[in-house]
Amino acid sequence: MMTMTKRWLVMMAVLLSLTGCGYNDFQRLDEATKSAWSEVLNQYQRRADLVPNIVATVKGQANFEQETLTKVVEARAKATSIQVTPETLNNPEAFNKFQQAQGELTGALSRLMVVAERYPELQANQAFRDLRVTLEGTENRITVARNRYIQTVQEYNVLARSFPTNLTAMVFSYSPKPNFTVQNEAQISTPPTVDFSAPKK
């Protein structure tokens, strides 16, 4: 009888210690980061799906800069070739590779839109205008999704590094997660160089 009572007390002590050590918070924030990450991926995929239509529309414009178009196609191919798994969230190297590829596609599309400004016929094309509006909306959705992910990861990482919850993180292997870097944000937000010279014939 005494042994059963001791076991019961030990179990209660363990449960109480888990409640106060942030274990449940780790569970909640781990799921929140996965959910936020899924939304980031959904929006990036939405953008990638738009690229073939944009490229097809632009190809119909005579004398359009082929190099600009090629860079968009190559950037999309690189971004979509990276295999993203649940482990990507816990692998800084894989995460950095993914975000660099997405940053390159962002830059290539931005450059394409700047060059397109110099083609009045393309700007008058209703299909292109519709695609441009859709792309702009998608870029906004990406920004919102990324910001949500950044905030969620920050909350998770603070929990993983703070005392005493860092002890729980060590016991249950809750390592800090990689996040979008400041360098990457700067790269994405840098406007492309605009060349106002006439397009090559």
Short description:
The protein has 201 residues and is mostly helical. Helices cover 76% and strands 0% of the residues.
Description of the structure:
With 201 residues, this protein is mostly helical. The chain has one domain (30-189): Up-down Bundle (de novo design (two linked rop proteins)). The chain is 76% helix and 0% strand. It has eight helices and no strands. The longest helix has 37 residues, at 23-59. It is elongated, with a radius of gyration of 24 Å. Mean pLDDT is 84; it is low at 183-201.
Architecture blueprint of SSEs:
Blueprint lengths: L1 H19 L2 H37 L6 H16 L10 H25 L3 H4 L2 H36 L3 H7 L10 H8 L12
Helix pairs in contact: 2-3, 2-6, 3-4
Mean pLDDT rating? 84
Largest sheet report: none
CATH hierarchy, class: Mainly Alpha
CATH topology: de novo design (two linked rop proteins)
CATH superfamily, by name, is LemA-like domain
Tell me the radius of gyration. 24 Å
How much of the sequence lies in strands comes to: under 5%
Summarize the helix and strand pattern as letters: HHHHHHHH
**Overall CATH architecture:** Up-down Bundle
Give the beta-strand count.
Answer: 0
Q: What is the helix tally?
A: 8
Instruction: Return the structural class.
Output: mainly alpha
Q: How does the overall form come out from the CA principal axes?
A: elongated
N-to-C span:
94 Å
Given as residue ranges, the uncertain stretches (5+ residues, pLDDT < 50) are 183-201
Helix content: over 70%
Domain module count: 1
